[in-house]
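User: structure tokens for this one?
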Amino acid sequence: MNKSEQIAAIALQEICFCGISLDGIIGFCSDKWQALWADAIEGTSFFPFYGQFNHAHVALLKDRFLEPRVWEEKVEIEGRVFKLRFRPQIKADGTTFFWCVCEDVHLVETPKNSAFLNDLNDNLHEGVFRVGPNSELLYANAALARMFEYSSTAEMLSSKSWQLLIEDDAFHAFKLAYRSDGHAENKEILLRRKNGDVFIGLVSVKRHINEKGEKIFDGSVRDISATKEIERQLKEEKIKAENASMVKQQFLSSISHELRTPLNAVIGFAYLLKEDSPRPGQVENVNALLFSAEALLSLINEILDFTKLDVGKVNLDSETFDLRNLIKKTENSFSIATGKKNLQFVVSIDEKVPQLVKGDSVRIIQILNNLLSNAVKFTFHGEVRLEVSLINEDDKNFAVRFLVSDTGIGIPRAKLDAVFSIFTQASELSTRQFGGTGLGLTITRKLVELHDSELIIDSKPGIGTTISFVLNLVRPHADHVVFGDEQSEQLERLDGISILAAEDNEVNQLLLKKFLVSWGAKVSIAVNGREAVEMLALAKYDVVLMDIQMPVMDGYTAARHIRATEHINQHIPIVAVTASIMSEVADQIKVSGMNDYLIKPYTPYSLRNAVLKNVE
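Assistant:
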């Protein structure tokens, strides 16, 4: 015998097994088998050995000798349970026999460990029970008795069946739950205490068959009434919070409309004054008016943007735009502000930075404007710098790094985290001296996080601050190239274009007419949605400017009427004019059948472009 055969022989002797012939004679067995059962050795009959533990299985075992498959049986021997695994085997000479491998499973409950199990059951917090075939309680631990408010398990067992402990409707539902597979786990059931009070129990039950062939049910119960009450309170609080959030959004939508509508007139007429060849002494006044109005608009936008970001109502758009042109326009915007403070404004664009990319250009402008505004605000000498560089690219994306730095007052290290908090600036002195809502950096961080990026900030008091972030911008397809909005500020005329403007505010009616007529358009005014619908049924127009919030009939309803009625203007382009910037408004505009939207307050350029964009 070689070494591997010796190892195999030793291993086999460590297993408790025997071989059984078709006539039930033990042909061979391991040392483990002989040590366990000295009477069941080679040459003896296997059936008396097996039958002395469970006579009912002898006939079944004989039948299974003829079945070519593996099966298992359990036998109990002197307080121990063994699992016997049988497997048929055919020798090379055609002789058939069966392997029988024996495995010690566990100790059966004896008087010695029964006391231990009883103590364990009585000290459990969960109720443990056994129910007989007629729903009678055969066993209950102390926790179950306490749960149902019985003085002892004896009282509980003598006075109640399991069915009487369950509410009638719940009992039938529970029977259905375990009927199919014989057990039910973690079912919430209404249970009844001794005094009649009902509580919610988490019940698990497993069905098995006893030696008489009867159905027995073993299970556990946990009182979850307190947990369910907490869940109920949490649901109520969630509903209250959702309702409060809805009310807040409705309020913001309303206040946005109320603030932006008059502000639209202020900014619009300021532009008209500026274009109306003001006297030299009036130019400064008009510029001051525009500056103040746009500063007010910026504050309103910050508050509304923060609220939208806070409730997760901001989604990023994806469009092809000219990144280099965007940086150039940003440079032009801040050159005036830095020039007024005698600051040097340095813009550096890496030559590798692509011209066309795909992303949300509006949000990128907002991020850069916020960072540069802060830099200019807190810098009194030296420079403000914007650097844009390409740090990586592949077939699908460009990784572009944006860096804004200044030589301003800086932020103490202890305050770096605080400046990103709501309504917070580095100090109260900063708030009084420089103004602002303290929302700029909070909004900026949230917008950067929407791009799956983060703001990196480094600052030293008296030296300056550097903030950078990296955006992954998509490489646009060649067949979807759009060259940005370079034409948006060209003063293209609207000669011959017929426009219906549905607007209830008289000041904004006047403003619209002044702008549109000065560009050569023909303008008709409807004071509400119903009037707009009636006018469109009578005369041909090229485009409709539809205010959303109007009396008698709002813009959404009017648009639906226009689309649903067959007339000469059924398919006319409709541009919604709204003072709300909530994302739900954009969805409603689309659903109601309108083609585009224009947000108040609008500039002359955005108004003109909204018309040109939607006129065929």
